Amino acid sequence: MSRAASRLLTTIYLLALLPPSAIATDRDQKNASTPLPQPPRRPFQAQPPSTQPAPMPQPALPAAKSEAPSCGNRLRSAGIVFEESAPPDAPIPGCGAPEAVLLISVATPKGQIELSSKPLVDCAYALTFGEFLRDLAAPLSEGVMKARLVAVDTGPGYECRGRNGDGSAKISAHGKGLAIDVSSFSFSDKRRVLVERQAGEEGAAFVKTLRRAACGWFSTVLGPGSDDHHASHIHLDIEPHGSNGYRICQ
């Protein structure tokens, strides 16, 4: 390769390393040395004050109120099957369940839990009891009984009466549709476990664990050993106690 060709290649190589702004052509240098014409300046003129009235501030529109779903819709969303019911009779002052429903069944990931007695309860209680069966009793049966919980036997739910059947006592939570008495559990392997007595270790462990865990869901939990009135079932209610909402678990 000749020396001239080598220099040419070296020059091209060096130019390639430079940024484009560093490479100025003759035309660029000429334009840079020739000042550009400036537009004539106009004298400053103050603008007259506006005669248009200032816009009035618009009042803020109230935010749209989102309506809370009804209790019935919350039951449906939770997979709780029910029938609406007319408010039950209230022969004693203080009794009543304004949003009465009949509990039919509760859906779980493994199947339905039937409530053959169709207890009549207030809708708010139905939601608590249904979620208790779905989220606690159903998985507990799988873990302890190694079988699916398919049915729960209960009392009628609503009963307008005093506590423990005493007409002179304070109205029972049953008289407000806020309680259910559970007497037995049935499983997919045909076993049936009674609250009053259990035939095997698994059944005893299931009832004991369920009864103890129920204290996290209900304000009152009473069962065998509490008193003679609860020897054959577990009483579960959500009626609040006192101003601090203490719980009774016996």
Structure overview:
By secondary structure, the protein is an alpha+beta fold. The protein has one domain. It contains five helices and ten strands. The strands form two sheets. Strands 5, 6, 7, 8, 9 and 10 form a six-stranded mixed β-sheet that branches. Strand 2 and strand 3 form a beta hairpin. The protein is globular and about 105 Å long.
Which properties best describe this structure?
globular, four-stranded antiparallel β-sheet, 10 strands, 250 residues, disordered N terminus, 5 helices, alpha+beta
Which bin fits the share of residues in helices? 25-40%
Taking Cα atoms only, what radius of gyration do you get, to the nearest Å? 40 Å
The helix/strand class is alpha+beta
Low-confidence stretches: 2-18, 20-33
> What summary fits the major beta sheet?
6 strands, mixed
Residue fraction in strands? 15-25%
Terminal residue distance: 106 Å
Number of helices: 5
Coarse shape = globular
Please give the number of β-strands: 10
**Total count of domains:** 1
Characterize the quaternary organization of these chains. single chain
Helices and strands, in order, run as HHHEEEEHEEEHEEE
Mean pLDDT score: 84
